[in-house]
Amino acid sequence: MTCDEFTAVKHDLVDGRLPEDVTREARSHAAGCAACAEELGSLERLRQALSEAGADALPGNTRLRVMGALLAAAQAEASPPETMTLPEVAAYLRVSESGVCAVLDRIPHFEVAGEVRFRRESLERWIAREEEQPAASTLAGPVLTLLTGDAVPGMLAG
């Protein structure tokens, strides 16, 4: 299943209105796709909240419109601000602040009153450029150094 196919069935999946084989395929896709898994989790939490609030009594189309509107509002609230601090960027990238500092020379940023700030748009462009680079080019130096260096770590020896 592709992300587009998942998007087309996600509401029916959450409402339990899919055949078993499609349900298995959609859940399998979500298990291997972080973006779809996050969206499914959000929908399931929203479905649970609506159920607890008694919204199950609403007609299906109305319930889906309410769910969609609430999900869109929640996603808008969850989006990072236009200008982010170091802790916000670390949370956004899901790495430690020291991890961000380690690659600060590569991440677009600016300083205000001696504090580092990041524009979300610039950060997203940087991420897109990083994704376009072949994975081997980012690993080749350290891996080759480790494997060809004079000192072989104990785990690799023997």
Note down, in words, how this protein is organized.
This protein is mainly alpha-helical. The chain has 2 domains: 3-78, no CATH class; 83-148, no CATH class. Helices cover 66% and strands 6% of the residues. It contains 8 helices and 3 strands. It has helices spanning 3-14, 20-32, 34-52, 60-78, 86-93, 97-102, 120-132, 135-148; strands at 83-84, 110-112, 115-119. It has a 3-stranded antiparallel sheet. A hairpin with a 2-residue loop joins β2 (110-112) and β3 (115-119). α1 (3-14) runs parallel beside α3 (34-52). The longest helix has 19 residues, at 34-52. The protein is elongated, with a radius of gyration of 22 Å. Residues 143-158 have low confidence and may be disordered.
Chain-averaged pLDDT = 78
Major sheet strand order = 1-3-2
> What share of residues is helical?
55-70%
Write down the Rg. Answer: 22 Å
- Topology, number of strands: 3
For the termini, the CA-CA separation is: 44 Å
The residue ranges in which pLDDT falls below 50 over 5 or more consecutive positions are 143-158
Count structural domains.
Answer: 2
Task: Quote the beta fraction.
Answer: 5-15%
Q: So how many helices?
A: 8
Indicate the multimeric state.
single chain
Give the overall shape, derived from the CA principal axes: elongated
Report the major sheet.
3 strands, antiparallel
